[in-house]
Prior knowledge:
The complex is a heterodimer of chains A (310) and B (616).
Chain A: H1 2-29, H2 34-39, H3 45-55, H4 61-73, H5 88-123, H6 129-142, H7 145-159, H8 177-203, H9 206-213, H10 218-241, H11 250-256, H12 261-271, H13 274-302, H14 304-309
Helix pairs in contact in A: 1-13, 5-6, 5-8, 6-8, 7-8, 7-11, 8-10, 9-10, 10-13, 12-13
Chain B: H1 2-12, H2 14-19, H3 54-58, H4 61-65, H5 71-80, E1 84-86, H6 92-102, H7 105-111, E2 115-119, H8 134-143, E3 148-150, E4 158-160, E5 163-169, E6 174-179, H9 193-204, H10 213-217, H11 223-227, E7 237-241, E8 244-248, H12 256-259, H13 270-276, E9 290-296, E10 300-305, E11 318-322, H14 328-333, E12 339-341, H15 344-351, E13 361-364, E14 370-375, H16 385-393, H17 397-403, E15 410-411, H18 434-443, E16 456-460, H19 468-481, E17 486-490, H20 492-500, E18 506-511, H21 522-526, H22 540-551, H23 555-571, E19 575-580, E20 584-588, E21 592-593, E22 609-610
Parallel strand pairs in B: 2-11, 16-17, 16-18
Antiparallel strand pairs in B: 1-5, 3-4, 5-6, 6-8, 7-8, 9-10, 10-11, 12-20, 13-20, 14-18, 14-19, 15-19, 21-22
Helix pairs in contact in B: 16-18, 22-23
Amino acid sequence: MLIYISRRLLWTPVLLFVAGLFIFSLGSVAPGDPAELMAGQRADPEAIARIRDRLGLDDPFLVQYTRYAANALKGDFGESYRYRGRDVIELLGPKLLVSLELNIVSYVVTLLIGLPLGFWAAMRQGTWKDPTMTTFMLLVYALPVFFTAPFLILVFALWLDWIPVSGWSGMFSTHAILPAFTIGVPGAFVFMRYMRASTLDVLGQEYVRTAHGKGMGHMTVNRRHIARNALLPIVTILGFSLAGLFGGSLIVELIYGIPGVSRLALEAVFQRDYPVLTTLTLLGATMLAIANLVADIMYSLIDPRIRLRA
Amino acid sequence: MRYVRRLMIAGLAVAVMLAIGCSADEPTPVPPTATSVPEPTATQVPTKAPEVQPTSSGVAPTATAIAAATSTAVAEATASAGEQATVVAEETATAASQAAEDVDDREFDARRGGVFRLLGTDPVTFDPALTTDSTSYDITLQLFSGLTRLTDDPNNPIVTDLAESFTVSSDGTVYRFVLREGLVFSDGSPLTAFDFKWSWERAALPETGSPIVKEFLGDIVGINDIVDGNATSAEGITVIDDLTLEVEIDSPKPYFIAKLTYPVTFVVNRDNVESGGETWTEAPIGSGPFVLKSYEIGVSMVLARNDNYWDTPAFLDEVQFILAGGSAMAMYENEEIHVTGIPAASYERVTDPNEQLSQEVVDVPAEFVTYYIGFNVEQAPFDDVHFRRALNFAVDKELIAEAVLNNRAKPAYGPIPPGFVGFNPDLEGLRFDAEKAQEELAMSKYADPESLPRIVFTTPGTGGSPPTYLLAVADMWARTLGVEVEFQEVEWATFLQEIDNYRLQVFSLAWSPDYPDPHTFVDVLFRSDSSINQTQYANDEVDALLDEATTEPDPARRVQLYQQAEQIIVNDAVWVPMWWGTEGKILVNRRVNGFRISPLGSYYLKDVWIEREIDF
């Protein structure tokens, strides 16, 4: 087990180096020049050359990447091109936090709706209720965010005037309610399906029949035997979802005016702010690597056969 | 530049044309400006205040009282006077104090206070020396100030600001500025002529990295040496005493004073800049009507009143910019912001007289802007003047304006928009004429359709398809002349690079002026050696006229020279001029007074006040 984990851990830096190299090289082949963008339309070529010089953009690609990687190892991810004098980490930190909060509340909504619904539907397999609920959730899942978000704003912020239209003041404020539901409810469909399938699996197991046969109450069987066992495979899926926690949700952030990481990332693309872009990509790759690792470890804890093969 | 904002609008094209000057409200990434976030922005909307303008009668008469410092006035003075021509009336100071007295104290107090909220985007910089884009421009205008400033009075576009008056030598090359007495920065430290000398020299230093300093201050003797790293001080700038600054420029340029309204010429605080390092603008000390109270990137920006402002201080306690985006229209209706453009989707509802919101709709006067289709005259097939003229004659702008744009766009026939200094009502544009178009095509070397190379028409944007009016233009070209074009849409960064390297054959863009002088249209875009002559147009006759106009002291003659150059440019069909600024509508909260935007497109928040009855 330890060998397995450490082998995976050793691979991570290699993975990150390659990911970083990839995104960094995009900077040298993509059209558009950050110096030109910084200088504006009015700038004469000399002014652009001065900026290129200051940013070190004229150095060979490998020199630039080595410099970046060496600094990154020391925890210095450079300065943003767009926000002069601002450290990339200082810039990204607060935005990542906001996106993390947003994703956590959305996730809570997803789980609180998806899991009970999936269980509920599985228990009603064969009646009209199961397909009706599944179809309904599929419809919700299929609705595009750029429709649901303005709709929710219209109803809850403008007509009912319960919650503000936009802004963000933490995951425990009223600001979080609409975005959390906008992201969380459609996501619940996926977990509902997982939970439903997994519950159906468990329902067919002999120990469930035994429990019923022992004369245990329905509630007890449901809770202690069915739900608990059905949740096990779900846990591993949760591990994978970790990777998404730091990711933004672009459209939701734009519509609700949430100062998350997506807006910054989008802006960085348009502004060719390569230090920000590279750092974001590296962060994303790191999260994915960690999430994979966590998921693998969870699998192996649950299923000894995986451990043995490793 | 402001240019960039237009671009954004050009990119949004029809949606915006229809919504008229309004930013779209959808979350779709909008073609980014060169520098600012690709965001729907309420503050980028051309705006005019509601009818109520109590402030201009009360506090702002300084502006009107000061005898004009327009380039025209300057030139007149220069021309007429023998030794030194005093341009600015001396009663300025008295006018200012009188004005303040005019406003009843009680009334003044009643207007004072309140928080004004806008949806905005992150400025690229707060450093006036680095300001080139419209978002930064709008903010530096609130935080800093210079010797002169712009007004929204078309008859008197430039007034003195920190300068009380100035005189110009008879040869037009030496400007002597007298500063107002007792000027201080927002932190209370004194502001003298030395600060101007230091600020201008600092703006020129290579370390500062100002991309536009040559354009705006390069006329001053010695500034270019600093930019090139050969000097650290400019001999053309002399401090006579604390209140007197003498500036020598390389040749008489009547438009020099107009350039001093641009942020790169604003005064900054030496201690502030030197102690703050590269991030001094996180706590900038300026001399504008507001100070920066807080700024969190992508979240919010708060300006507070500068109580040390030289003139009557601003009414507003605070101006809050929401930078995180959001649905502008919904935020406006929920009173989370005070101003917004009207998205196309809401236009009908909002302007319906039965709708309560319609009472908050404010007309925006036409802005100075020219939309155009530019040809790269060095690239085939646009290297043939007859071919370019044929394309011009083939476009029926009136029809497009009516059928595609619901008459919300005003067909343009030359670069300089109506109302702008030097506009020529007698300009002979290349109006739609199918026969002439075909004749011109026959005269060109591309008369044979086989000889016509592939034409790629590039538009900046991320909308997915070119604006409908451009499709209409292409259709007219195809029908009248049999000339087919392919469209290619590229996002702004790519567009900028391609156009800087003259790789685009034909493109659509918009331009709006930086200062009230025809120079900003004609010279900057069409002089053969201008660094932003995107069309590579070179005409010796035009260059000669522009050279003459640059130093011509007689304003009437000067305008004439620019108009002659403009006519040649039009005849040479370097562009297809498409639209001039159009009137539009925006929403301004009914309790907000005094919010307006100059025809040059920026706003000045000092005179804004909010009626107090209901708390926000």
